[in-house]
Design a protein that fits this description.
single chain, 8-stranded mixed beta sheet, 3-stranded mixed beta sheet, binds uridine-5'-diphosphate-glucose, binds manganese (II) ion, transferase, membrane, Nucleotide-diphossugar_trans
Amino acid sequence: MGGTQQVVVKERANNLPLFVTKEAKGKLAFRLFSSSIFVGICLIWAYRVANIPRADEGGRWLWIGMLFAELGFGFYWILTQAIRWNVVRYHPLKLNLSQSSDDKLPGVDVFVCTADPVVEPPTLVINTVLSAMSLNYPPEKLSVYLSDDGGSQLTFYAVVEAARFAELWIPFCKEFNIEPRSPEAYFSHGFDVPEETANTQQRRSIKEQYEYMVKRIEAVINKGSVPEEVKNQHKGFSQWNCNVTKQNHQPILQIVVDGRDTDAVDSNGCRLPTLVYVAREKRPDCSHHFKAGAVNALIRVSSEISNGAIILGLDCDMYANNADSIKEALCFFMDGERGHQIAYVQHPQHFDNITKNDLYGNSSPVLNKVELHGIGGYGAALYCGTGCFHRRTSLCGSKYSEAYKESSNWGMRKEDKRTVYELEEASKVLATCGYEKGTQWGKEMGLVYGCPVEDVVTGLSIQCRGWKSVYYNPDNIAFQGVAPPTLDIALVQFTRWSDGLFQIFLSKYCPFIYGHNKIKLGAQMGYCVYLLWAPSSLPHLYYAIALPFSLFQGIPLFPQVSSIWFIPFAYTTFTLTAKVVTDDVSKRYHREIMNFGSTSIMFTVISTLAMVNLLSLVGIVLKMFLWGSDVGKLMPQVVLFGLMVSVNAPVYEAMFLRKDKGRIPASVMFKSIALASLAFFCSFKVDPSM
Ligand SMILES: O=c1ccn([C@@H]2O[C@H](COP(=O)(O)OP(=O)(O)O[C@H]3O[C@H](CO)[C@@H](O)[C@H](O)[C@H]3O)[C@@H](O)[C@H]2O)c(=O)[nH]1
Ligand SMILES: [Mn+2]
């Protein structure tokens, strides 16, 4: 081949597309179906408005309430259509990327956040760290940072142990190409190979080493402090003087593995990735902004040490499952045509502890498999906090510009001649409390402060600076986390999210205002599906309350089955989402039985509603059988009501039948019976005609 020809071939290889976009199947069918539902909704609204009872008729206010509830349902439904209308999927073309050489690849910094050694045990944290260190990527371009908001030397001790174990674990992972890359997940899933191969022997030996390490760490945790002889083995421990507490300490920072060091090698003699432990400064009089503050400190610290152009953020329980996830993400960022527009690539949150029936609805299949693709179709994938690859520049506040297309010299890393000590001291300054004063950190730079769901609002502000984002949900799951295993933890999490998301809607970040002319209308609507998640519960609540009362008082709220007006109602299926339906009666989460067991106010609400339904049911049955009352004209309500009562079955069971510790406590039960009876008999007085 002549010289010119060679150049042409090379150029073409560089210009190969690195990802493709595919539209979801069945788009037309969906759009037709969706339009027909819209017609149904309009008919329901028309029916409600046209049939409002006169002031002298019963049930006027109940009816007007229904009108508002159905307007609410309908508008929310319209918002949800925005994220189903245009579902697209992006597919990376990894083989095309592998045609460009390693030295073109950008540096990648992985951030792992932990906050408390009790709630988030150090062995869990180091499994995430180890899984990140062993990702398939050139080690001299990979750095892992652990942010420890617990400021705990127990966690630091576990990290020191993990660094040593990494020397065995990384070559093992790469030699046998195993997945998942978290040792705990790998060994606990029982990958038993029948015949004695080199792999089995080596696996057994590494498993032993792993278990031995876990034992050592647990012994130290049980003791509550690190023994003197262990402390003497690593200079890092000297940073914990007697004044260090979780809320009050100087910045603590230790480069545990220095990736520049040619002597930092694994058992095969290959270089190790950089590993850094950071506990940013904490002072009682200085707000630390939770995870957002921790991530922003890491952004600065990492810019001093490795300055990777790509940042992967992981919660401490999200281990890497797919070993090639970095290269897949790079396909999006490095695509010659569109890559320069992309600020981040978000993976869904997957959990490895989901039970068969997904008792608390944690796996959110509609969200992960449809909606997030749908909003991603507008180039506006949500940033969900964990499992997300960011471009450093866009995360640090820069505006998008076409000029990025020309200037993508990813591979460069500046030569740094400073000693580890000098580097550590320079980095500590960036992790002090005072550093952010008077700067744009927490506003235009880094993660946005002041909202419990800092991630979503940060993603929105990045998009409003002109960037695009990609949602990517590969079959080979990239990251796996831990879903809340009890109902109250799950509810607290949902409350924090729905509350925080609604705050965004009410703030200056409301997508319709903040995103106006900056992101597409469909994306604005899509954001609002989540931001209005909390108020969207109000129409549900109204249905749950109005239905039993109206039924007991004999007020029809729906057209009779024989009426033509019944058709649109039957078509829209406004039933309550049956997240709690399970007939399993075993005790623990893995045996899939609901765990109430606490006196949380949320359980009082749930059981009071269930009691209102139950009392009405008793009332209706009495009316029918004792007084021979005709419930024919109430048929649609009776059906809906029957569904509602059956959805509540686990609640009745937990109140009256169960004896285990997960039952609804007696105090909650009595409270809810009292409240429900009160509400019930008040309504009884209001309408003496029944
Ligand atoms: O002061 C804090 C508090 C939390 N974290 C870390 O933040 C992560 C998420 O906290 P967690 O308690 O697990 O909350 P989740 O509800 O599971 O988090 C989800 O929701 C958050 C927004 O509410 C996102 O930031 C998370 O990425 C997302 O996984 C964990 O790694 C924590 O260690 C800190 O580093 N510092
Ligand atoms: Mn979590």
